[in-house]
Amino acid sequence: MYLLRLALASLGNRRFTALLTVFAIALSVCLLLAVERVRSEARASFANTISGTDLIVGARSGSVNLLLYSVFRIGNATNNIRWDSFEHFAAHPQVKWAIPISLGDSHRGYRVMGTSPAYFEHLHYGRGQSLQLASGRAFADAPFEVVLGAEVAQALDYQLGAELVLAHGVASISLVKHDDKPFKVVGILARTGTPVDRTLHISLAGMQALHIDWQNGMPARGAARVSASQVRSMDLQPQAITAMLLGLNSKIATFSLQREINQFRGEPLLAILPGVALQELWSLMGTAEQALFVVSLFVVLTGLIGMLTAILTSLNERRREMAILRSVGARPWHIASLLILEAFALALAGVLLGLLLLYLGIAAAQGQVQANYGLYLPLKPPTGYEWRLLGAILAAALLMGCVPAWRAYRQSLADGLSIRL
Amino acid sequence: MSSALISLSNLGFAWPGQAELLDIPSFTLQRGESLFLKGPSGSGKTTLLGLLGGVQQPKRGSILLLDQELSALSAGARDRFRVDHTGYIFQQFNLLPFLSVRENVELPCHFSRLRAKRAIQRHGSVDNAAAALLAHLGLDQPGLLQRRADQLSIGQQQRVAAARALIGQPELVIADEPTSALDADAREAFLQLLFAECREAGSSLLFVSHDQSLARLFDRSLSLAELNRATRLTEI
Questions:
Q1: Whether B91 contacts B150, CB under 8 Å
Q2: % residues pLDDT > 70 (chain B)
Q3: Whose CA is closest to B77, among B46, B106, B48, B54?
Q4: Quick one: which H or E segment has residue B114?
Q5: What's the rounded Cα separation, in Å, for the pair A210 and A212?
Q6: Which one of B107, B112, B167 would you mutate to disrupt binding with A, by most A Cβ within 10 Å of its Cβ?
Q7: pLDDT per residue over A40-59, tens digit each?
Q8: Which pLDDT value is given to residue A177?
Q9: B56 vs A contacts (CB less than 8 Å)
Q10: What residues 165-204 of chain B have any CB closer than 8 A to a CB of chain A?
Q11: Where are the domains of chain A?
């Protein structure tokens, strides 16, 4: 105990270097924990993006591609699927529910998705949570109604009843707007932490209405133009959709239905299991995430080496201190313990300060991160894994403390009680 | 128990790979005696003090401290024996600058149970012992005990070092040029205080210096060159 007092007093005497060392360790610890947190939360929220859906069906392409555009609203479908294919499988005896998805338009950088009311009823995320409306209602049969994801409403500051114009295509600045057919906000969804937050939902009829007068990817001109009021009386049954989500009566049927869809004779289709595709996609991103983690481990190591350097350089100027301690009865192992204690105290202070920085950082950035990346970082106590990481850092510091301890031990044996200066 | 506190016989020492530095046929220091040992730098006095402190081991011969053969003890036991029975005062910068005056004085009591016990027996507590010693040495200004050691003048620091050497009444006080950083007047005053405290504690004083002018104040005066046959040989 007295040795600890001596070690702290001696550190206090070198407080500037000590503080810098502590700060370096704290920053590295903070970085490591932040990376670890973002990593685990990203993985969790990733795996929670969709649940309860047994099969995702789209035009034949790659499974990751299909997952990206149907669930994450990233990239585009290479081809559509016909409406009668959707009807065929929606009516399949094994299928409990089917959600059609139609993509392709956007609004100020956010994707617009055409779907059916079944979407609000059957789409689940996280641990089986269903979508909740924060305000308003789901869209009805009227074509020009839109339900906003939480983030869209917040970022663009839309209230119920607001009118907005959708843009053709998915570029954030679109030159071709559907400005002849404005949509009215009828509902805003509660936050889910999934891509749903960044989506504008309209009915398939609305999607069809937008494009009913389009020819060859361009809006019609002059007399061929169909106005919003005209369109209401027209048949808005879509000819094609982009993808569909299927829920089955029994999980056991998943593989046989998947095979049936993949061998469908009507048109080339691809059915994927969301869980498997998510795994596949995560393993792609996993490499980057692991690299980030390894880099932050090295940053911690750098911090600890900085500490080692600081202690080792101090040894020479502290020979007198050691000799005095020897003359008042400190044995060489006391001197060695002093240095190990010193290393441990520095690392402990660094770890504690690092934790403080982490929580301050999370508290400060929580809202921003959620708004910009859809990632919720909770202010929760360190997990078992994080405690183990911190423990490992302290253990590494102890181990490193043995280096100056050993040198000081040798030095104090050689110097004895007096040093000639 | 013999009356000799230190007794060296046929002592030889050489640093590895070097010629013999010390060759002392016989030397004794009596209990309660104050001895002036004159030694110019390089004469092996630091080495002799290292041997007496048990930090170095002799090549041959015996060192008896309080009738205990030092080389018969393990390194750890020698360290313990040293702090139990010896107080040290060095030339300068004797104190740990980051501790208070009081903590500096009490240092030996943290490493030697015997000296802590003796301090408590005599003064009731280690804190009292430190305050009493400092007061005897003329350091009783209010607030001084709590000050950092490096805020004191050199003369005050040496008196704090003396108090530290004397706390818990070790049988032997070894002073290695403690006055060389002081001016002439302060030297004698410091020595008088040191003598008085050594008498009070019953400690022998082994005072090593090259300053011959101080020799007259001691019970006995010796030159290391007279003791040490090795140096005589190299001088010829």
A1: no
A2: 96
A3: B54
A4: helix B113-123
A5: 6
A6: B107
A7: 888 887 777 888 889 999 99
A8: 76
A9: 416
A10: 176
A11: 2-46+285-415, 55-272
Q: Distance from CA of residue B44 to its chain's centroid?
A: 16
- The predicted pLDDT at position A172 comes to 60
Query: Nearest residue of B to residue A5 by CA position?
Result: B99
- A96 pLDDT more than 60: yes
Interface probe for A, chosen from B81, B110, B126 (most Cβ of A below 10 Å), is B110
Q: What was the pLDDT predicted at B202?
A: 87
Q: Which residues numbered 93-132 in B keep a CB inside 8 Å of some CB on A?
A: 93-99, 107-108, 110-112
**C-alpha to C-alpha distance for A277 and A73, rounded to whole angstroms:** 15
Taken as a whole, chain A contains a residue count of 421
A250: phi then psi, degrees, rounded to nearest 5: -140, 135
Select the residue from B13, B111, B172 to test the A interface by mutation, using most A Cβ atoms within 10 A.
Answer: B111
Measure CB to CB from residue A329 to each of B95, B112, B176 and give the nearest one: B112
Q: Six-digit token pair at A256?
A: 């046989």
Cα of A65 vs its chain's centroid, Å: 19
B111 contacts A327? CB cut-off 8 A: no
- Distance, CA of A63 to CA of B119 (rounded, Å): 83
Among A6, A328, A417, select the one facing B55 at the smallest CB separation.
A417
> In this structure, what token pair is assigned to residue A214?
């389009």
Contact A321 B79 (CB under 8 A): no
Tokens of B84: 């139990």
More confident position, A247 or A175: A247
Give me the residues of chain B with pLDDT under 50, please.
Answer: 233-236
> Which of residues A403 and A282 earns the better pLDDT score?
A403
Nearest Cβ partner for A418 among B46, B97, B111: B46
Beta-bridge mates of residue A107 = A110
Q: Give me the phi and psi of B18, to 5 degrees please.
A: -120, 165
At residue B44's C-alpha, the angle toward residues B42 and B47, to 5°, is 125
- Ordered by where they begin, the domains of chain B are 28-44+79-230 (3.40.50.300)
Helix axes B126-136 and B154-166, enclosed angle (nearest 10): 130
Q: Do B50 and A416 touch (CB under 8 A)?
A: yes
Beginning with the edge strand found earlier in the chain, give each strand of the sheet holding B60-65 in spatial order: B22-30, B4-13, B60-65, B68-69
A327, A342, A421: best mutation site toward chain B, by most B Cβ within 10 Å? A327
What's the maximum distance between 2 C-alpha atoms anywhere in chain B? 56
Residue A180 has a pLDDT of: 77
The pLDDT value recorded for residue B182 is 81
End-to-end alpha carbon distance in chain B = 40
Chain A neighbors of B93, CB-CB under 8 A:
320
pLDDT tens profile B5-61: 899 888 888 888 888 888 888 899 998 899 999 887 777 888 888 888 888 888 889
Alpha-carbon gap, residue A103 to A201, rounded angstroms: 10
Torsion of Cα atoms, B109 then B113 then B118 then B124, to 10° = 70
What residue ranges in B31-147 does DSSP mark as E strands?
Answer: 34-38, 60-65, 68-69, 86-89
pLDDT of residue A421: 43
Residue A51's SS3 state is strand
Q: Which stretches of A264-393 are assigned E, i.e. beta strand?
A: 269-272
The predicted complex's ipTM stands at: 0.88
Average pLDDT of A141-168?
86
Pick from A328, A416, A418: CB nearest B83: A328
**Given CB atoms, is B15 within the 8 Å cutoff of chain A?**
no
**pLDDT at A104 > cutoff 80:** yes
Q: Which chain B residue has its CA at the smallest distance from A1's CA?
A: B110
